[in-house]
Amino acid sequence: MTDPQAPESAPGWQALDQRLVRCYPGQMPHQFTSRNPYEPDSPSPLPAVSGFAVPHPPGWHLITYGLSELFDKSSPNPTISGFGFEVTMVVPREDGAERPPAWVVRFLQAVGRMQLETGGKLDTGHCVDFAGSLEGSIIEGAVCVPDEVLGKIDTPNGSVLFLRLVGLTRAELEAFRDLDREATVLALAELLPDATTDLGRSCLLQDDEKRKVMRRHQLGLRW
Question: Is residue 4 scored above 90 in pLDDT?
Answer without folding.
Answer: no
